């Protein structure tokens, strides 16, 4: 049930007021966005040995879109990638020095983020055990403080699971991994035919969609390092249909600045005649060529190629391959341009980046779909996005937020909640008298121990800050208080906040039995998403 209510924020000299939905959805004309769409590229440059190359300038690069040169409007070298993060450090505290009295600690700085995924859906059990060992070895070898904030995920027969959110503390991630023992991949061996493989492929693509949605709308490159044997091999008409879905997923990941690195935990393979699952089983030989890669892995290679990542196989040092991928995803250049072709016809446009030095190789995403950069804010789109944020097991990073709650002693079954949102993440618009206003939609969903939804609250809020107070209050969070039912059979609650102006979404998960504070996981920088 939707409810619009009056909210007074005295502590911040802000107030929220009831507004008609039609007025809330009004915003700046989006036609200008379509005419000035900015294409942003993260480019990794390697030498003849594949080692990342630094020290290049804007003049060393040429961008071709469908074979036509483009003017580079923005250039950022690797050393300039400094994104503010507030994450868990190796000491167990939020990293960064302490800020002024009454404020949050100052953030640390990182050039990129790493998302480590262990694929237990498409990988044989023994390979899965080895993948886990190698991920643990990587974390232990590169600790106690990792070079990048790293999130740890896994896919099982049933779901995508967050083992631990972004952290620089390797010991914390190792301990979290120990709490999630590997499960037997029953679906991998039970139905290897077309139907079973197609089902697993669709589930895998759905997991990639969830990763893209949860990690969109904040600055910087995110490197998805996927340790597993790749997508199931699908042929014929079934593959053609799935290729369409894969293209859509790849575009979502490109838009979120996610680059996929796939690492096969099988290690170095010796191919014998008649071995199934390999493209060139011929005479006894070492599997070294592209055609010798497992078919499923080569199928997954499409995602890696289209997002500017890599596919790695036939290596026993999987932990080193993970480290190489992390380093590769750090030393990147960011280039941006406004396409000379302004015909937004929805067709795919190929991108190629060349270098003045022919011995160097540039790797970036394969292209993008020429769709007008419009912002859809209709009811159907909002419902779809909020439903996705509610169902996704991963925390959303588009808004930095935290939640406090306290049961009301005089009202059994009810609780008072306070959602604190970083003002810098919100889309503030100026009113005629110079005040600043933002609008958000808030969803609170309670879930039982049996993963059943027991309560759903939806609220639309508007906050107004006086012009005289706006600048001085920007470093203070916007606090959104509300009262909601706390069902006795509820175990957890997910709070979702969506900015109605820019569409950014943040989430926080609460264990209802433990009143206190629930953080959104990481205070990450945000920006208007650019494709």
Rg over C-alpha atoms, rounded to the nearest angstrom: 24 Å
CATH superfamily of the largest domain: von Willebrand factor, type A domain
- Helical segment tally? 11
Question: Uncertain regions: pLDDT < 50 for 5+ in a row?
Answer: 1-35, 91-106, 273-291, 520-531
Based on the structure given, which CATH architecture of the largest domain is correct?
Answer: 3-Layer(aba) Sandwich
Describe, in plain words, how this protein is organized in 3D.
This protein is an alpha+beta fold and 531 residues long. It has eleven helices and 30 strands. The strands form seven sheets. Strands 1, 2, 3, 24, 25, 26, 28 and 29 form an eight-stranded mixed beta sheet that branches. Strands 12-11-10-13-14-17 form a six-stranded mixed beta sheet, with helices on both faces. Helix 3 crosses helix 9 and helix 6 runs parallel beside helix 7 (236-255). It starts with a strand and ends in a 12-residue tail after the last strand.
Please specify the SSE layout and strand pairing.
Layout: E1 2-4, E2 7-9, E3 14-16, H1 21-25, H2 31-35, E4 39-46, E5 61-65, E6 68-70, E7 74-76, E8 83-85, E9 108-110, E10 112-119, H3 125-141, E11 145-155, E12 160-169, H4 170-178, H5 186-190, H6 194-214, E13 221-227, H7 236-255, E14 258-263, E15 270-271, E16 285-286, H8 295-307, E17 310-312, H9 318-328, E18 332-337, E19 348-355, E20 361-363, E21 367-369, H10 379-391, E22 401-407, E23 414-421, E24 429-430, E25 436-448, E26 453-465, H11 467-473, E27 478-485, E28 490-499, E29 505-511, E30 517-519
């Amino acid at each position: 049930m939707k409810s619009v209510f009056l909210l007074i924020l005295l502590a911040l000299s802000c107030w929220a007021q009831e507004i008609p939905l039609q007025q809330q959805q009004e915003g700046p004309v989006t036609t200008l966005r379509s005419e000035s769409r900015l294409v942003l590229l993260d480019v990794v440059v390697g030498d003849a040995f594949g080692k990342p190359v630094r020290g290049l300038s804007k003049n060393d690069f040429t961008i071709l879109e469908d074979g036509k040169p483009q003017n580079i409007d923005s250039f950022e070298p690797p050393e300039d990638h400094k994104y503010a993060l507030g994450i868990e450090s190796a000491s167990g505290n939020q990293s960064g020095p302490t800020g002024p009295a009454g404020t949050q600690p100052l953030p640390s700085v990182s050039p990129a983020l790493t998302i480590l995924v262990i694929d237990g859906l498409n990988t044989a059990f023994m390979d899965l055990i080895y993948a886990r060992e190698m991920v643990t070895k990587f974390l232990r070898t590169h600790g106690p403080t990792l070079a990048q904030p790293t999130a740890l995920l896994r896919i099982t027969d049933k779901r995508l699971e967050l083992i631990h959110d972004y952290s620089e503390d390797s010991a914390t991630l190792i301990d979290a991994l120990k709490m999630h023992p590997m499960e037997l991949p029953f679906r991998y061996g039970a139905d290897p035919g077309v139907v079973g493989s197609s089902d697993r492929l669709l589930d895998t693509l759905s997991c990639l969609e969830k990763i893209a949605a949860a990690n969109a709308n904040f600055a910087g490159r995110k490197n998805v390092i996927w340790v597993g044997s790749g997508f199931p091999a699908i042929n014929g008409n079934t593959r053609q249909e799935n290729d369409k879905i894969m293209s859509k997923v790849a575009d979502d990941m490109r838009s979120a600045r996610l680059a996929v690195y796939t690492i096969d935990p099988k290690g170095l393979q010796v191919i014998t005649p008649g071995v199934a699952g390999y493209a060139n089983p011929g005479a006894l030989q070492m599997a070294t060529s592209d055609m010798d890669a497992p078919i499923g892995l080569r199928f997954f290679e499409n995602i890696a190629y289209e997002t500017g990542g890599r596919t790695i196989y036939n290596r026993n040092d999987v932990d080193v391959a993970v480290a190489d991928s992390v380093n590769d995803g750090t030393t990147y250049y960011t280039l941006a341009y406004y396409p000379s072709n302004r015909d937004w016809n929805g067709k795919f446009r190929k991108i190629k980046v060349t270098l003045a030095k022919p011995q160097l190789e540039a790797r970036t995403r394969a292209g993008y779909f020429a769709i007008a950069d419009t912002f859809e804010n209709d009811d159907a789109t909002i419902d779809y996005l909020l439903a996705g944020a509610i169902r996704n097991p991963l925390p959303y990073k588009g808004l930095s937020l935290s939640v406090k709650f306290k049961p009301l002693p005089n009202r059994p079954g009810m609780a008072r909640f306070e959602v604190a949102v970083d003002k810098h993440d919100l889309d503030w618009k100026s009113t005629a008298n110079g005040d600043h206003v933002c609008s958000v939609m808030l969803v609170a969903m309670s879930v039982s121990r049996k993963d059943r939804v027991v309560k759903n609250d939806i609220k639309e809020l508007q906050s107004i800050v006086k012009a005289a107070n706006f600048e001085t209050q920007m470093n203070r969070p916007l606090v959104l208080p509300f009262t909601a039912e706390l069902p006795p059979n509820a175990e957890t609650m997910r709070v979702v906040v969506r900015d109605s102006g820019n569409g950014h979404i943040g989430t926080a998960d609460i264990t209802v039995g433990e009143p206190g504070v629930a953080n959104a996981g990481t205070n990450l920088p945000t920006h208007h998403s650019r494709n």
